[in-house]
Specification:
The chain has 415 residues and is of the alpha/beta class. Helix content is 31%, strand content 28%. Bound molecules: uridine-diphosphate-N-acetylglucosamine.
């Protein structure tokens, strides 16, 4: 998918089925290297990032197959503990294989991830946490090489509740000798899903989803059958599409308890939402009202919600300030919204958005997954046609995006 063409669309109406969470399944796939044998992962979205992670697992010797949202992974006894440059470069989340590889095989060679469109993406806290468990690292020719005879449980206090560092530490600690306590851990629902997966494998993890996680190490783990939680970021995308285009939707399988802050903020903007027996029900107001938003670690407003919320604020009554606290450089999509007539001024990590009555379709570019999705949802409320180039970014994280939007009344196509 290279280009998405979106025409301004009338009210949305109907039901959208929310797929499995990208940010959960990628980490569950990394966790499969912790045990030999056949894993079955269900509710897996059909997205590029899952294919990239499958390629990485294959490069390490696993057999991977995928059909009808079910992914099977056969982990061999002799996993090759190496993540090559091409795959880490294509998907930064692959850094989470580092902890599990060292835990099970005592060594890992993983390409150093570079920066991306959000700016610098360091991994120093991942390495610090793994060092606490006894791993040693050196970097050569762009690769991080890690070693450990047997990891030992330790107290790890994270400087910041980094999602990636918490995941790497957790997946290493499950096979360490003794008890590990991770303080100031990330609390995202995807982390709780990873802990549930690990516990099913025979690990002993307590407290995931809170800021203190306690792990009692076990000598070996076994493969499992697991269902991925629904994607709160995909659900957020359809909620903002609705906020902008108007109408009424049921998001099947969406979990309102994973999106409290988002639903509060959209509620302040005038969107009505409520829990529904099948997921979440939502109905859009005639006009949105502006609010201020700050991205923060969970349960705050996720950094991934910000482009979507800024798109909605672009057509709200009044002015709102969006403060990006997680990735300071994550405002490139603002230039694209401005090309569509949005009135946004960015200073440092703040954006001041003065709502305009309506955006106008224009040729624009998707810089990353959420930026691309935000432009598409903005285009639903714009006059005329918007042509989004580099749309492959959107396919990295959205399962059948064009089809799902079309089914609820949006007017768009892709090539
Ligand atoms: C982040 C988001 C996550 C989102 C994902 C994909 C947060 C807290 N995390 O997860 O919700 O789904 O991006 O877009 O919102 N950092 C360091 N050193 C490290 C690790 C991180 O300085 O070793 C910094 C990062 O530069 C960033 C912050 O910590 O400013 C949060 O990073 P982290 O949570 O690790 O990022 P992801 O795991 O990619």
């Amino acid at each position: 998918m290279e280009r998405i063409r979106v025409r301004g669309s009338g009210p949305l109406d109907g039901r959208v089925k929310i797929s499995g969470a990208k940010n959960s399944v990628l980490k569950l796939m990394a966790a499969t290297v912790l045990a030999e044998g056949r894993f079955t992962i269900r509710n897996v979205p059909d997205i590029t990032d899952v294919r990239l992670m499958a390629d990485l697992l294959r490069a390490m010797g696993s057999e991977v197959s995928y059909a009808d949202a079910v992914l099977t992974v056969d982990t061999p006894a002799d996993t090759v503990p190496e993540a090559p440059y091409e795959l880490v470069e294509a998907m930064r989340a692959s850094i989470v294989v580092l902890g599990p590889l060292i835990a099970r095989l005592g060594r890992a060679r993983v390409s150093m991830p570079g920066g991306d469109d959000f700016g610098q993406r360091p991994i120093d806290w991942h390495l610090d946490a793994l060092r606490r468990l006894g791993a040693e690292f050196h970097t050569e020719h762009g690769y991080i090489e890690g070693r450990a005879d047997r990891l030992r449980g330790a107290r790890i206090v994270l400087e910041f509740p980094s999602v990636g560092a918490t995941e790497n530490a957790l997946m290493a600690a499950v096979l360490a000798e003794g008890t590990t306590v991770i303080e100031n851990a990330a609390k995202e629902p995807e982390l709780a899903d990873l802990a549930a997966f690990l516990n099913r494998m025979g690990a002993s993890v307590l407290g995931a989803g809170s800021s203190t996680i306690t792990i009692d190490g076990v000598p070996t783990l076994h493969p499992v059958d697991h269902q991925v939680i629904p994607d709160r970021l995909e659900a957020a995308t359809y909620l903002t599409a609705l906020a902008i285009a108007g109408g009424e939707l049921v998001l099947e399988d969406a979990r309102p308890e994973h999106m409290d802050m988002l639903m509060q903020k959209l509620g302040d903007m005038g969107l009505r939402t409520s829990a529904h027996p099948d997921g979440v029900w939502a109905s859009a107001p005639e006009r949105l009202r502006a609010v201020d938003i700050n991205s923060l670690p969970y349960p705050g407003v996720a950094t991934d919600y910000m482009p979507l919320m800024v798109a909605a604020l672009s057509v709200a009554d009044g002015a709102g300030i969006a403060t990006e606290n997680i990735f300071g450089g994550r405002f490139r999509y603002v230039d694209e919204l401005s090309r569509m007539g949005a009135d946004i001024r960015v200073e440092y990590h703040y954006a001041l958005i003065r709502g305009v009555p309506r955006l106008s379709g224009a040729p624009v570019r998707a810089h990353d997954i959420r930026a691309g999705a935000a432009i598409v949802v903005a285009a639903l409320g714009a006059d005329g046609e918007t042509v989004v180039s580099d749309a492959h970014h959107v396919a990295r994280g959205y399962d059948r995006f064009v089809e799902k939007l079309t089914a609820i009344g949006a007017d768009l196509d892709a090539d």
